[in-house]
Write a structure and sequence with these properties.
By secondary structure, the chain is an alpha/beta fold. The chain has two domains: about 5-235, Rossmann fold; about 270-500, P-loop containing nucleotide triphosphate hydrolases (Rossmann fold). The protein is built from 17 helices and 24 strands. Strands 6-9-10-3-11-12 form a six-stranded mixed sheet, with helices on both faces.
Length: about 500
């Protein structure tokens, strides 16, 4: 059978980096094909080329056997290729329907015929068993709903080949199961799926075939029958030194961070956070588990000072932080690792070295009498790039040029290098490859032992269970339980998160 798509000899270089090096890829019709590889291996670049977002230096592309020139995404879409990006591309204040039909409006006498468009979208959604509310604004959707909207959009545009770049890194395990059900449904209706993910267990669950990339090259293509987790990990990164978390765990000390009765109401008077209280001791990691959309985002905004709470107090040591700005909180020793790194964490137009001092740029040693000390800024960048293994290692590079996982490393490096007393980390390992994830776990553990109080918000229950001293369960904007990891396992936590009850 003619492959659905073929990429031959694709090469793409950026200054100092060969992002894709003579890559060939064959995608068969009706298969779920996973592409895996470490951060910066070239996965997104390859898919951006297939979708017409990036122009390769060399190489050719065939779609259903014919050679094509995919100069831009419009051409990709007209060829039946759709893409759900690593960072969502929906317009927040548009409705679901508007986002889906954007650029594709069925016109009648030049006007958009909404009714017809809505019917068509709903028919499509039904046929793939996707539940959506077309009139809802996109900004009110949970990430998994946003993702479904993006998938539906790709289908609406006639997508036969759907590319998903790390769709599961923003999902909870339950949502991932639902997404995989949807992908299998698409497959059974003859669609072809290309999936990028860092989670090997998922790769083994869903793929028909797997392409492994490393340093811009394809190192192997496997049928699912030949693949095991060890084999894939080895192909991706060679021999990984596997250090378990063996550091002796020191005992937590006195409470240094406290949140008292935080309530948050929206402008319409809807409660988003209800009476949230918890405390974290020095040398303690408090894990926060919860289904996405249970109030994590709002809590992060309140703790970072981006959004005032309606009532309640935040304390660090003996100081009340409730009314301090994000900058003042940072100066007090609160570090925030946000999950929406491109919005809250980084300025993509800035250089790598500049992002590494963001928030400290106005004070010594980086700034004295209004002039920046480039020597210190450069030295800081070189040290952090090395310590956090940021690739490419050029401090002068624009941050937009970094791969997703490497952008995450930049935020971690910056926030943790300021020697904070409290670390609020939301999805700290999102988008990181296996080695990166292990590195961050060690890092947080080490920070804990060094006397920090850490709030770990994560949708990865394994991560929460492994690292936390205590686990708080957030449900519907409320903390419904705080338990010790000994009393919890994944099933139990999952039940508690979804039903509010243990069993
Ligand atoms: N616009 C760009 N300018 C310069 N370099 C870039 C650009 N886009 C990507 N690169 C570089 O190309 C290489 C491959 O990046 P790519 O985003 O394809 O990696 P990835 O496999 O998707 O990684 P991740 O798992 O971290 O998302 C990286 O070294 C990256 O820094
Ligand atoms: Mg990527």
């Amino acid at each position: 059978m003619v492959p659905a798509a073929e990429m031959r000899g694709i090469t793409k270089s950026y200054p100092g980096v060969l992002a894709n090096d003579d890559v060939s890829l064959e995608i068969r019709k009706g298969e779920i094909h996973s592409i895996i590889g470490e951060n910066g291996a070239g996965k997104t670049t390859l898919m951006n080329i297939l979708f017409g977002l990036v122009k390769p230096d060399r190489g050719s592309i065939l779609v259903r056997g014919s050679k094509v020139d995919i100069k831009n995404p419009h051409i990709a879409i007209s060829l039946g290729i759709g893409m759900v990006h690593q960072h969502f591309m929906l317009i927040p204040n548009f409705t679901v329907l508007e986002n889906i039909i954007l650029g594709q409006e069925p016109a009648r006498r030049g006007w958009l015929n909404r009714k017809e468009a809505q019917k068509a979208v709903m028919r499509l959604a039904d046929s793939f068993d996707i539940a959506i509310d077309p009139q809802k604004r996109t900004e009110e959707l949970s990430v998994s709903q946003q993702q479904e909207t993006e998938i539906l959009k790709a289908l609406y545009q006639g997508g036969e080949i759907i590319i998903l770049d790390e769709p599961t890194s923003v999902l909870t395990p339950q949502q991932t199961t639902a997404l995989f059900r949807l992908l299998r449904g698409l497959k059974s209706q003859g669609k072809t799926i290309i999936l990028i993910t860092h989670r090997l267990s998922e790769v083994l669950q869903i793929s028909d075939r797997i392409t492994v990339m490393r340093g811009g090259r394809v190192v192997d293509v496997l049928d699912i029958a030949q693949a095991t987790e060890e084999k894939l990990a080895h192909l991706m990164m060679g021999d990984l030194e596997w250090k378990p978390l063996t550091d002796e765990k020191t005992a937590p000390e006195k409470v240094i961070f406290r949140v008292e009765n935080i309530c948050l109401f929206t402008l319409e008077g809807l409660p988003r956070l209800k009476n949230i209280s918890f405390s974290i001791r020095k040398r303690e990691i408090l894990g926060l588990a919860g289904v996405a959309g249970s109030g994590q985002k709002e809590l992060l905004e309140v703790l970072s000072g981006l959004r005032p709470c309606t009532s309640g107090k935040v304390w660090y040591r003996n100081r009340e932080l409730t009314h301090l700005s994000p900058k003042e909180r940072r100066e007090q020793g609160i570090a925030i690792i946000p999950d929406e790194r491109q919005i809250l964490g980084l300025i993509l137009d800035f250089k790598l070295k500049e992002n590494l001092i963001l928030g400290q740029h106005h004070r010594p040693p980086y700034c004295r009498r209004f002039s920046l000390n480039y020597h210190r800024i450069g030295a800081n960048a070189r040290r952090l790039i090395e310590e956090f293994n940021i690739q490419p290692s050029n401090p002068e590079l624009g941050t937009a040029a970094l791969s997703g996982g490497n952008q995450q490393r930049v935020i971690l490096a910056r926030e943790l290098s300021q020697n904070p007393g409290v670390i609020v980390a939301s999805e700290p390992t999102r988008g990181l490859d296996l080695a990166g994830r292990i590195f961050v776990h060690h890092l947080l553990y080490h920070q804990r032992n060094n006397g920090k109080a850490i709030l770990l918000m994560s949708s990865q229950l394994e991560e929460v269970l492994e690292l936390s001293d205590r686990i708080a369960v957030l449900r519907g904007g409320e903390i419904i339980s705080i338990l010790s990891p000994q009393d919890a396992d994944i099933d139990r936590l999952g039940k508690l998160m979804t039903t509010g009850r243990y069993l």
